[in-house]
Amino acid sequence: MIRVLIADDQALIRAGFAALINSAPDLEVVGEAIDGADAVRQCIALAPDVVLMDIRMPRLDGLQATQEISANPDLAGVHVLILTTFEADEYVVAALRAGAGGFLGKGVEPTELLDAVRVVAAGDSLLSPRATRALIDRFLAQPSEVQLTTSPAELEVLTDREREIVAMVGRGLSNDQIAEQLYLSPLTAKTHVNRAMSKLGARDRAQLVVIAYQSGLVRAGDA
Fold it and tell me: What domains does the chain contain, in order, with CATH numbers?
């Protein structure tokens, strides 16, 4: 059972998401937070698998709350799924930097939301290769938006195969697509991805994508 905490300052939205999530046999809402500070407190108390986090909330917004959750070693098993509107695109980069495992628009279809919770709970972030490519190309690759915080030298801890796979993750390929291109089993591809995340200190796949771009391993337009 995947345990979910919903963080949103609007009671009606919390109730709607709670009803939807609780309708799935493998998902369970364990708490509702009214702002970011409350979300952090409840994460410490409840240790949910996934936090469905709004961005704009009083006291402590969703980005700051995500950062606090990600920085707390006792909450290493907590994954954050940010809810945003694509009209506020500048939040996407900030969400990834803060440690979010994925993001969704609030107009998402119910089945997509449920699938996204499952994906983020498993550590396979960013929801889809298409979303990865579109958003990374548009935001992470813009020098005005992102400064280089991961140097190419930091990638020296990776094997040649791991570097190749990190680049493929950065270009938006799924584990199955990586496996197909490199003639590997999906399990082997996932193992390489997990080892790369461990060596680079990436919390999840989303941060691995950020590292791929920030280090220059992948650049805008790469396909």
Answer: 2-123 (3.40.50.2300), 149-214 (1.10.10.10)
